[in-house]
Structures are given as structure tokens and as C-alpha cells.
Write a structure and sequence with these properties.
Blueprint (H helix, E strand, L loop, with lengths): L2 H14 L2 H8 L3 H15 L4 E2 L6 E2 L1 H26 L6 E7 L1 H8 L3 H7 L3 E7 L13 E5 L8 E8 L1 E5 L1 H7 L13 E4 L7 E6 L2 E6 L5 E2 L2 H9 L4 E5 L4 H6 L3 E3 L4 E2 L2 E7 L7 H14 L5 E2 L2
Parallel strand pairs: 3-4, 3-5, 8-11, 8-12
Antiparallel strand pairs: 1-2, 5-15, 6-15, 6-16, 7-12, 7-13, 9-10, 9-14
Amino acid sequence: MDTLEAMAIFMRVVERGSFSAVAREIGLSQPTISKQIGALETRLGGRLFARSTRNLCLTDEGQRYYEHCRLILAAVDNAEHSFQTGQERVAGALRIASSGSFGRIQIAPRLHGFLQQHPDVTIDLQLSDKNVDLVSEGIDVAVRIGELKDSSLVARQIGLTRRRVFASPTYLEQHGWPATPDDLRFHNCLVFNQLEHFDNWSFEHGGQWSSVQVKGNVRSNNSESIRQMVLSGLGISLSPSWLFREDLQAGRVLALLDGHTPSSLPIHAVSPPDRRQSARVRAFTDYLRDAFAVDGDVKPM
């Protein structure tokens, strides 16, 4: 049995979710595909798939083996290309994780430009407002905003996201304008609770930093939910400038506390500690860093 060929077939079965689909794709019979997977399981000494249901489901061991196969086959492909060209090829599958709002607004619109530069890369963009486990989810690179809590990750800072205080005209008509950060104590402040010290807002004014403890009747782990609440007139938020860019231009919200600059949040590209920084990960993070450098709502590094 050709182990690398069996690995490649196993990966395609996982990704297509069907033995017959892979058989049609590579021009073999379904029994041949089943025989290859069976031989691989015999070699490994355990089941890769749980076949008790109609759908193919990986066993826990199968999931771990799949992640190893992705790395091994990518390394083989890069080694062959490096031998032929003298440099590592920017190609293959790239699995990216991000928060929902940042991924939708800041990453997804930029993928077209990245893929134009690197047409041999395929992207799987996973959006979640929870910090997913990079290893178990098979993530190559995650883009995270805020201070990193997991020091074991391989991290590279690629920007700083600017923040401002926002409220709708309706809210301000009913509750008045805060003139200073300290006035926020008397307002309904809507907080994004995925950040450390989320209810303590810091501002710089005249070279001096101060902070205010805020409170409100709603908190959320989703930035776009907070945006909708602000637009509805429910309260005030301290949010990334890019989240309200179009609303600010259209007059649906107003930016408050001119002259009092909120602290910015670092943007990191992070990878699992045991995963080699591939050419496609480096190319993607370089691309984002350069794109952020010309974005008025994100400070370059």
C-alpha cells in the first residue's frame, strides 16, 4: 500500500463526505476506495470512520489522523516544489478563524485580492465569536483582537484597531451627551464582554490616561449585536471604528467625546505552537498587515 496515496484518498473522503464521490472524482471504483481506507485502518490498528450512521463521521482518532495528514501532505507538496523552484510554494488549503464581525467586515472582502495574488490557495474561513481551539479545529491561522490570554500560541501582531464611543441621535436626544468620559457612569453602556476588563473603558486626553467603570442593562459577545442595539437607541458603546464606519457616514450614529481617545486593541495572527509557519500562512498574514496599513480604522504596525 502506498501510504501517501492512501492518506490523500482518506483526506478526500473526509472532505467530500462520501466514498462514491471520491471514486468518481479520481476515476476508481467505490470498492477500491473502501479497500484503500480499510487497508489504512488495518495498518493503523483502529477505525477512522464510525459507520453506524448513514453519514460518514470521523472517530476521535480519525480526526487527529486527518489533521496530521493535512500537515504531512502539505509538507510533501512544498518540499517537491521547493526542490524544483528553490522556494516554498504558496499553495494548498488554508483554514482561517476569526470573530464573526471582524471576519465578515475586515477579512472576507479582502480574500478576493489575496487569492488573485495566490490562485493556488484554497480558503476555509471559520467565523465564531468564541476563541476556538486551534489544534482540535485544524486551524492554520486565527485573527484575534485584544490582548492574548494564551501565551503558548505563535503570535504576530499585524495591526491595531481604533475604537470610538458611539450613540444614536435618538439616544442622545433622550439622555443627553456625555461631555467627559466620567459622564459615561450615568449612561446605559452596552459592553462587548469578550475582552478583558470589558466594563472599564480607558481614554487618553492631553497625554494623560484615565479610566471609567461603566454599566448598562445589556452585554454581548457579538459586536454586530451591540451595533444593532446602538442603532436602535438602547445605549452607548465603545466599539471598533470599522464596525460603525458606514453608520457614521450616513448619520445613523454619532462619535462622542472628541479629544478623548480610547485605547486601541492589538490585532494578532496566531497559529498553534506545534504547527510550522507555512508559506501560505506567512503570505496571508503579510497581506493582511499591508491591507491594514492603508485602512483608516486600523493602525499599521
